[in-house]
Amino acid sequence: MIDVSIENFESEVIEASMHTPILVDFWAPWCGPCRTLGPILEKLEVAYNGRFKLVKIDSDQEQQLAGMFGVRSIPTCVLMSQGQPVDGFMGALPEGQIREFLDKHLPEAGPDDVPQELEQEVLTQVDDNDLQARLEKLQQAVTDKPEDEKARFDYIKLLLEMGLEDDAKVAFAPVIALAGTSQRLNALKVWMDALDLVQLAGDANARIQALDAAIASNKRDFAARFERAQILLAHNQWTAAMDELLEILMRDRCWNDDLARKAYVAILDIIEPAKPPVAEGQIPPEDPTVASYRRRLSSVVLS
């Protein structure tokens, strides 16, 4: 796996794909589903033993490349061959579906292409980077201790990252009444409400264009701005959604019973990664994106 920028894109992607298929992973450091998908892709690159090469592109840092590929949500993966995009997928798919995607497009493995011992080791490895294993561990934690809010939050969040919205709603149902008093549970509700909105809206791109037109004619059309933020949220465009919510807050901090601020805080709760362990008495470092957007919120709300 290598990181690619605009400077080495031609050599590491276009030219390299003339010899070996290249799987391009568009990601960002703040993206939860990206952190889920990344280890799976790296594991499969090893398992496929040279049948494809994995490259990663930070869509925040390399917006020109993201624009070239029409990336609208992350993670987005594009398979390149002979200098051209062949196929792609969006979201943190389970390992089995990614294998099906790869097997459909990659040349068949020869008898010497995949060392049996290595393949068996990769297939049987179960650790915290294994999506299904993490899901099962969290599900068991919720079953063993239903009142454990953190375990339930992590479980539902992972279900949503995997696109298992119906399962997430089932897991959320026992605590839905607590969303009004729990900031983390409310964050999940905000996320699921946005996903429901997008499902009802149909063509998200067409709806965004209509909302953009409404906002262009009236900068204080906060309902249009909020719906736009919800659509961005549903497509994992977290920072873009918060930017839109800030546009509301800068003009009316208390609009609609503080709805924009609550949604903004919800996104921060969703994207904040788990704190790394530190020595007693030390403060764990804060995620730079979360820290930056917290400061921006404070500067608007307290101004």
From TrEMBL:
Entry GO CC: cytosol
Species annotation: Lampropedia puyangensis
GO molecular function: protein-disulfide reductase activity
Native organism taxonomy: Bacteria, Pseudomonadati, Pseudomonadota, Betaproteobacteria, Burkholderiales
PROSITE patterns per record: THIOREDOXIN_1 (PS00194), THIOREDOXIN_2 (PS51352)
Biological process, per Gene Ontology: cell redox homeostasis; response to stress
Name by which UniProt lists this protein: Thioredoxin
Keywords recorded for this protein, A-Z: Disulfide bond, Electron transport, Redox-active center, Transport
InterPro entries: Thioredoxin, Thioredoxin-like_sf, Thioredoxin_CS, Thioredoxin_domain, TPR-like_helical_dom_sf
UniProt similarity note: Belongs to the thioredoxin family.
Origin: domain of life: Bacteria
Gene3D superfamilies linked: Glutaredoxin, Tetratricopeptide repeat domain
